[in-house]
Design brief:
This protein is an all-alpha fold and about 150 residues long. It has seven helices and no strands. α2 packs antiparallel against α3 and α3 packs antiparallel against α5.
Length: about 150
């Protein structure tokens, strides 16, 4: 056992780190702190690294293909690739959210301006209806008396 750990120390550490990454992402999804659609790249990163850690011959072939002398160092290259993909993905999501936020702020400003305009100058076709409603609810009283009673209450 001791010889195994000394011989495959980097692989054991890499496997444990990748397993912890996948477990952490799974737990964050379960607690709804990360949405499923955003966790996909994290799962792919962890699973790819676990596969390359467990399949040493695949890792050695990949390292030889890209010209890396020490195969476990190729894991850092794969990790760097996935980190760049994740950063690009989150940049796209952030850009889309910023655009949506700007559109919502513009719509809100237009609605607030319209509301302010309607309060300052109510449409003339609504004014007679308000007077009729006030008379209907107050009986014989005129609308100004109704408003005075409502203010006093």
């Amino acid at each position: 056992m001791k010889d195994f750990l000394l011989t495959y120390r980097i692989e054991v550490v890499a496997f444990l780190a990748c397993f912890m990454l996948v477990s952490l992402v799974f737990e964050l999804v379960r607690r709804k702190q990360i949405k499923e659609k955003y966790s996909f790249l994290w799962f792919m990163t962890g699973i790819s690294l676990i596969i390359l850690t467990l399949k040493r011959d695949w890792l050695e072939k990949f390292a030889k293909l890209v010209g890396i002398y020490y195969p476990p160092s190729a894991l850092f290259l794969v990790l760097s690739f996935f980190i760049i993909l994740i950063l690009i993905h989150y940049s796209m999501v952030l850009s889309r959210l910023m655009s949506q936020n700007q559109k919502l702020a513009q719509k809100l400003a237009l609605l607030e301006a319209e509301l302010k305009e309607n309060k300052a100058h109510p449409p003339k076709d609504l004014q007679p209806e308000r007077a009729q409603e006030a008379q209907a609810t107050s009986g014989d009283e005129n609308p100004t008396q109704y408003d005075d009673k409502r203010k006093a209450a």
